[in-house]
Design brief:
Length: 337
């Protein structure tokens, strides 16, 4: 493992992108290789995000993938970014992550969110009840904490494995709602700035101002999830970023497809309105060569002061994706803040 001197922790968020029809095994293998690479570079954690009914994303069975990635690595923390908790029984998640902790002690994280991670019709197929989500989500977090506690051993319902497991819980958000909850419960808070930048500053402010220390966390801990695309030059990075742009353009048009290769000219694909909307939605994206990345990273950190930055790199080519994470790590190690 390389020893970079970092001013803040760096981590990875992976959606397990699928490039060809049905090539799920290939996508998972590339993610496992990327996790091994991230571990060698010194990234703190490697999280996988639960999504459903996306042809280009193979991370639906999140707990299974976490186990696979953990088996291919030895030190990096592996977890969910996140498990969409209202899609599941709290007991099932406690058992799954308790099992993961038994297999890979001290390396498993449980990031939880309340969004469906999919479209409305698929959310119904998952058994979600939209009218009870806001009430259910906080209750499920408390249930998880109870199932993981040793004190639950006298309960009629126990998580086995899970009871006494060392699985830290992180609350994920893309609006201000979960900031209040994370602050109230004294849990670490991760914000999805890679697709929902509008409320990130307000959410972090709420979390810091209202934070109450807990048995698991004495002071606020924030993770900013951002898009990161690094390359040797600005021009190459901007070319690679067209994969990210095409993916989000598909979401705007309700046309979820495979992870697309980069293109030379995005103006041939989007109209001015779509371009403006998309670039605003992706405004917290670090794209460029080392010089541009250094400026972007330093400016962002001075504004938000996150405890940790988690990068997701939507890059089609596996070698370029690996190289992007190397460049991002090297740039972060040179920052003087």
């Amino acid at each position: 493992m390389k020893d970079y001197n970092l001013p803040f922790a760096l981590s990875v968020l992976d959606l397990v992108p699928v490039k060809k029809p049905g090539a799920y095994g290939e996508a998972i293998e590339e993610s496992a290789q990327l996790a091994e690479h991230a571990e060698r570079l010194g990234y703190l954690r490697y999280w996988l995000a639960e999504h459903h009914n996306f042809e280009g994303i193979a991370s639906s069975a999140t707990s299974l993938l976490i186990g696979h990635i953990a088996s291919r690595t030895s030190q990096i923390r592996v977890g969910s970014g996140g498990v969409m908790l209202p899609n599941h029984s709290s007991l099932i998640i406690a058992e799954q992550f308790g099992t993961l902790d038994a297999l890979y002690p001290g390396r498993i994280d449980l990031g939880v969110g309340r969004a469906p991670g999919t479209d409305g019709l698929t959310a119904q197929a998952l058994g979600r009840n939209a009218s009870t989500i806001n009430e259910l989500f906080p209750r499920q977090i408390l249930e998880l904490q109870r199932y993981f506690s040793r004190e639950n051993s006298s309960s009629s319902v126990r998580a086995i494995p899970g009871e006494g497991a060392n699985v830290p819980i992180y609350i994920l958000g893309s609006s201000t709602d979960s900031a209040y909850l994370a602050a109230e419960l004294g849990l670490p808070y991760a914000f999805a700035g890679h697709f929902a930048p509008e409320m990130m500053e307000r959410a972090f402010t709420i979390y810091h101002e209202r934070f109450s220390a807990s048995a698991v966390l004495e002071k606020p801990y924030t993770i900013a999830c951002l898009n990161g695309i690094g390359a040797a030059t600005k021009e190459e990075a901007e070319f690679l970023a067209t994969t990210l742009y095409q993916t989000f353009l598909g979401l705007i048009r309700n046309a979820r497809g495979l992870n697309p290769p980069p293109v030379e000219n995005m103006d041939a694909l989007w109209n001015p309105s779509e371009k403006a909307h998309l670039l605003n939605q992706l405004r917290y994206s670090f794209i460029g060569g080392p010089r541009e990345l250094q400026e972007q990273m330093a400016s962002f950190y001075r504004t938000f002061r996150p405890s940790e930055i988690m990068f997701t790199s939507s890059i089609h080519d596996q070698a370029a994706r690996r190289d992007s994470y190397r460049i991002l790590m090297e740039v972060a190690s040179t920052l003087e803040l």
